[in-house]
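Hi W.,

Here's what went into the run:
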Amino acid sequence: MASAPQSSRVEAGGSAERLRDLLMRQDLVLLVIFIAMIGVFSAINPRFFSLPAAANILQDFSPVVLMAIGQTFVIASKGIDLSVGSVLGLSGVVMALVIRACNEAGYDPSLTIGLGLLAAMAVGLAVGLVNGLMITYFRLVPFIATLATFGAAAGLSLVATGGVQIAGGPQAVIMLGNKAYGGAFTVPVIAVFVVIAVSWVFLAKSRFGRWTYAIGSNAFAARGSGIDVQRHLIKVYMLSGLLASLAGAFVYFRLGSGSPLSGRGGELSAIAAAVIGGVSLHGGSGKLGGTVLGALITTAVLSGLIMVGVEPNWQQIVVAALIAFAVGIQSVRGPSAGGTS
Amino acid sequence: MKLKLKVLIGAAVVGLMSAQAVAQDKKLTIAFIPGIASDPFFKAMEIGAKKKAEELGITLIWQGSASEYSPQTQLPFVDSALAQGVDALILVPTDPDSLQPSVAKAQAMNIPVITVDTTVTDQSYLTSHITGDNVDGGKQAAKTLAAQIGGKGEVFIMSGSPTGTTNVLREKGFREELTANYPDVKIVDRQYAYSQPATATSAINTALLKYPNIAGIFAIDGTSGTGALAALRNSGKVGTVKLVGYDAYKVQVDALKEGVFTALVAQQPGREAELALEYAKARITGKDADKIEKTVVIPNVVLTKENLPETEKYMYAQ
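Here's what came out:
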């Protein structure tokens, strides 16, 4: 039983190792960029180098990194998930509606929050399942399948709310989202770190991760080696949906209300974070550490630009330049390294 | 026999009369095309319009783009309303020039047009234009905020986007009022939320770090307001930083009661819609047509915790 997967792993080992070396360096490059960025911003405005500023960045970073982790799995399987931003919005408002209803019915606050969280997660899993089924059984390309759910989920959140904010949660919700331990770590932020750790194990150390890479590098070969590709891909999209719904829950806790407009454009931030982190859109590669750094850099830079007083309209141009730069060095290095070894 | 005939004639006359009455009372069909159907502001307008339509016995066609505030997405709705041959068209033009041809088309078909909230460049054919006043709203916000921070200190503007005309006008009014009458109030920065409450939250959190002396914030639209609420709770500055918001959705009024918002500038979307329907009916039937005003500016109302007992009725329906 162990022998077949064992051998395929060994075969894949050579190229995986080369890739790993490459991506190791991408990690390092990103770390250098990140530290340099912090240095520059702090030099211009010392207030940037402070605990409250870090706490602020962590709040921005969390939803992006959650979606970006899902994206890392999806892109490693040679797919793309455009629905994550809309799933963030939809799961946030469903959570808000459930919590409001439970609160009005007089349920205990922790039960209320738990039920809301479950409802949000159910939304993410359901959208992920639909994505997976469309891609595997109906043979839609991931771009189109997830573009469809992107629109549907965005529309549903407007239908469900009538376009308005949904508040009406118990005070405990606001406490949970805003009470920081050690100055920066709210319960949702701590939970995000746990998710990052679990996802890292999932991607780097488990069969789930190996299969994801195998399908991404060559789905045909993966099927030949006995992987149930369809089933696995469905799971990958469900994971992405689940993580996006956790991002929705995070934003809900932060704002204390659900907005149908939340998450708009989030898919692009998530893809940008993953790609900056070194995940190749060609599939079969990508490491979680890179994605986490990618998300950290893209969110910290926005906060920093406000701190140093860059005009709002220039901010997005600076971020775009940063993306081009981070991905640029990666692809300049990529082909030559691939050619030599 | 004679009696029978009389009864018959009588019945026929009554029948004819009632038939005529039916024809006269033919239900009017009026199309109302909002800027974007999914926006809560237009939702409040829709509720006002539907209530009024029922009251006036009007068949209301409420149709608009669900996704985008733009002429490209709005035009198909306007065209199909005109093609249906409605009795009047009430329109929130998403662009003053792009919707001009639609007004010309309505004119050719002899369909009266009323614009609400925004308008078209050439208003000569319009029955009326009913609007709120965003520059005035900005001024009201400036007056209120300046008073609440004691006439001096640093303030911050959280805006929605650099292209939204309503945002731009509110900001203009806000700046004009401060420059003219409050020399000691200084605007330290302005950021954009781009429809994302969480973006507003982090922008405000960051601004509060950068400018620790910020005494007041003007949150220019609903999204900015939601973000600002979270930011003040987040940084523990509820009450110490005065927060003036725009619009009066339930969530915002609740936060006003709680003391996080210190004031709200409310428009009257429902009132705008009601008046538009009244004018449309008057224009078609000729009854009360002399009461129609060519341009109506519906005033803004400032809600504070203190005046809430009188002003809570301005909370938007949802």
